[in-house]
Design brief:
The chain contains 13 helices and 6 strands. The chain has about 325 residues and is mainly α. The strands form 2 sheets. It has a 3-stranded antiparallel β-sheet with strand order 1-3-2. Strands 4-6-5 form a 3-stranded antiparallel β-sheet. It binds a DNA duplex (15 and 15 nucleotides) through helix 5 and helix 10.
Amino acid sequence: MFEDDNITCTPKRYVLTEVTNSSSYVSPTANLKLLTNVALHYPTPPPSAVHRKEKSLQILCDRFLDLYPLHRNGTVEIQLDITAARLGVEKRRMYDIINILEAMQCAVHKKKNTYLWHGGSRLNSFLKMLKKQGEALRLSDALRGRAPKPPAPKHKTLGVLAQRFLMLFLVEPPNTLINLEMAVRVLIDTSNKNKTNLSPEQQDRQHKSKVRRLYDIANVFISIGLIEKVSGNLILKKPVFKYVGSFKMKKAAEVLVTPSPITPVSWLDERRPSSSLISTGRSKRKLEFTTPSASRELKLGITTPPHTPSHKWDEILLVADMELTRINNGVVL
DNA sequence: GGATCCCGCCACTAT
DNA sequence: ATAGTGGCGGGATCC
């Protein structure tokens, strides 16, 4: 297994004999246990001291990406249990993150407890493919109730949901605002294939459950830097998200101490799509809460149409339009 | 109070 | 049978 020596908080690697002062042979299992033990002793905030927000999936993903950056040449193996120990979280949480990252082709499941980390090297081309898929599924029309919802996939729910959620942004014009309610409505299948009609209560629970999942997914996407949360618009109470499409580079330390609210979006920001590659990221990491445009690092090369000077009211109206569509159709769900 | 979403139970799958 | 995964929703916390 490889480790990143450039990471400031990377624990020093120990050979078992260094720790045990023993030269006798120990099994790999014992070695693994020891490593986990060492990792557990690494400075992580005591559970009682950390607040809920600091334990969010977004922050956790930030810290994960500090260990395994998106910009990195080559591949590296990830041991889930050790990584969980280093991050001071339950292994269950690692699945939440790695499943989404795997769905973004940043990692592949190699064997049990082991993933191969590719970082963002494949993300660029994968997003292009996602966009094509989204177009084939007619998601843009589906958003407006002008096309059927895409058929529900069977497996890897969280990963597929993540992919389809992202597709919504990719098929829409730049700066389109999407909220989770809208997304769920499109992405959830009400065309039950097994003919078992759900009661309104069941539908409601299913809907809420999917929204919960989208919150998780959105947090990971924010961490990756694919989307941004846009809060404080006057029409909708709920936050909406917009596609940013670049890796957000920030330091773990700054993430932890920055209490700022979500960056307000500069509506009139200029977005010139460039098709630079994402591969060579020898870039310095940036502060998190600079300006949104300054936080953009490398475009992912999605072929967005030449940006029509979008006005914020256009965007708001689009959201409002979609909300209206929802209300109109919402009676039936 | 509603929005957000952490947490861990437990069912399912792989070994 | 045991271990690894991950769906899922209760309910704590935030706003």
